[in-house]
Amino acid sequence: MEKSKLFWLLLSILYFASTANSAGTTRASPSAANFIKASCTATTYPALCVQSLSLYATSINQSPRQLIQTALSVSLDKAQATKTFVYKLTKFKALKPREKAAIKDCLEEIDDTVDRLVKSVKELKSVGSSKGQDYQWHISNVQTWISAALTDETTCVDGFAGKVLNGRIKNSIGTRFVHVERVTSNALALINKFGSKP
User: Fold this and answer.
1) How far is the C-alpha of 141 from the C-alpha of 134, rounded, in Å?
2) What would the pLDDT profile of 123-161 be if each residue is shown by its tens digit?
3) What Cα–Cα distance (Å) separates residue 126 from each residue in 6, 135, 187?
4) Residue of higher predicted confidence among 175 and 127
5) 31-40, 50-59, 89-98, 143-152: lowest mean pLDDT where?
6) What DSSP state is assigned to residue 144?
7) pLDDT digit string (tens) for 2-27?
8) Confidence check: pLDDT of 165 > 80
9) What is the spatial distance between Cα 50 and Cα 180, in angstroms, rounded to a whole number?
10) Residues 168, 174: Cα–Cα separation, whole Å
11) Where is the Pectinesterase inhibitor domain (predicted)?
12) For residue 53, which of 17, 78, 18 has the smallest C-alpha distance?
C-alpha cells in the first residue's frame, strides 16, 4: 500500500514539474501582451478583455485577425458552458412554475446565442485571404450575429425581472449571463475596431 502511495506522489510531482516547465517555455512575448492590452482599451470591459485573452497571447501574437478570432472563441466557450448550466437547471425538480418558465425561455435564448456565435466563428475562419467588399461582407455578417447574440443574452436576464423570481436561481443565472454578455460585448468591440482592416 505504501509503495502505491509513493508511486502516485512521484507521478504528481513529475506532472506538476512538467506543466510548470511547459508554462515557462510558452510565455508570451512582451509585444504580444502589449498588443492585447492596447487592443482591449477599445472594449467596454478592458480588464476582463485582457484577462480572458492573455492566456492566448502566444497564438494571438500581434495579429488583429487572430485576436478577434480568439475573442469570439472565448465568448463561444463561455456561452456553451452557460447553456450546459441552464440545461441542468431545467432538470431541477424543486423549481417554482414561474422559475421553470423563465429557465425554459432562457435556454432558448442561450441556444440562439451559441448558434449565432458558432456561425460567427465559422464565418470569420472562412474569410481567409479575402479583401475589399467580400471581406467587409463577412465582417458585417459577424457583427450582425454577435449583436443578435447580445440581445438574446439580455432577454434571458430580463425574464427574471421582479421580486417573485429573486433567489439563488436568478442570481446564478444572472452572474453567468452577465459574464457571457461582457465577453461577447468585448468581442464585438474588437471586431468593430479591426473589422475594416483585412
Assistant:
1) 11
2) 988 776 666 677 888 889 999 999 999 998 888 877 777
3) 51, 10, 18
4) 175
5) 89-98
6) H
7) 544 444 444 344 444 444 333 433 46
8) no
9) 15
10) 10
11) 31-190
12) 78
Domain count along the chain: 1
Separation between Cα atoms, residue 151 and residue 139, nearest integer Å: 19
Q: Who's near 102: CB < 8 A, 6+ residues apart? A: 159, 160, 165
Rounded Cα distance between 40 and 186, Å, is: 8
Indicate whether this model's pTM tops 0.90: no
- Domain CATH code at residue 46: 1.20.140.40
**Residue 103 grid coordinates:** 429557465
- 104: closest CA among 145, 65, 34, 159? 159
Among candidates 96, 72, 90, 87, which has minimal Cα distance to 180? 72
Contacts of 160 (CB under 8 A, 6+ apart): 102, 106, 169, 170, 173, 174
